[in-house]
Amino acid sequence: MLKIRQIKATLLKTITLSALLSLGxxxxxxxxxVQPPQIEGIFWQPDLATTPPSGNWDLLGVSTFVPQWSTxxxxxxxxxxxxxxxxxxxxxxKQLKQQPWSQHIILGLAGEYDEKLARSNVLKLxxxxxxxxxxxxxxxxxxxxxxxxxxxxxxxxxxxxxALATLPxxxxxxxxxxxxxxxxxxxxxxxxxxHNTHVFFQDGVGVGTRSPKQAKxxxxxxxxxxxxxxxxxxxxxxxxxxxGQFRSAYPWEVIEQLKAYEGQKVYxxxxxxxxxxxxxxxxxxxxxxxxxxxx
Length: 295
Prior knowledge:
By secondary structure, the chain is an alpha/beta fold. It has a single domain, classed as TIM Barrel (Alpha-Beta Barrel), CATH 3.20.20. It has ten helices and 14 strands. The protein has helices at 2-23, 93-96, 115-120, 122-135, 158-165, 185-190, 212-226, 251-260, 271-274, 277-291, and strands spanning 38-44, 64-67, 71-72, 75-78, 85-91, 104-108, 110-111, 143-145, 171-175, 197-202, 231-236, 238-240, 246-248, 265-269. The protein has an eight-stranded parallel sheet. Strands 5-4-3-7 form a four-stranded mixed sheet. Strands 12-13 form a two-stranded antiparallel sheet. α8 packs across α10. It is globular.
């Protein structure tokens, strides 16, 4: 009984604090020049603990779901015949698309949990990805995402460009930088990115690299070079703790990110692990108070 009371008290404090924080934004109700962030999508890194994914992210306006991988370790996360062995738990595309937050799917292709392993096998993953694309042509999808992430320290990033060039376009790829204010990130990206490839830019806030405002500056620099529709920000809804672990971001931390990303399309990483129902309720309440409606 005590634990239940403690949980209820914590939830009440979360909602109350989020509401109080949001009141500071009420002055924006009549400022027509303020464009709210458009929370379009939610990422998910498939694992057995969160399969099938469940949430209320549609309250934030989410209608696009991005499973980061179709296959990992050459094992499929979907029950659709992709020509691979399956994990113990799998998803059904038809059932997934019935969720309000996954009316549209950007399907992650073949990947690995370990970044070094993924980069060293990028061409093999591209071959597996072509097979996945061929096997899912009958499924109405919004797009595909090739889940081998890139940053400026990857000296062999040209092989990623080579892999992407073999895939049907357009396709999405994600980038990040461990520098707080990376110089010439746009030049680096332009040096290898295939023309018709879209970019998810990870904001770096969740790993403690930079502030939301600093992320917005980098995002806008990239959009000046590539276009606003081609580069979209990924809001990291987690924060670092000890021993290399991460916790879910508190509602007010997510709110600070969203405030910085006004006028932008936003994808959140990731819903099933870091955006539980109470966090969504709190952020949705703030959004309604500040902007008058869901995104």
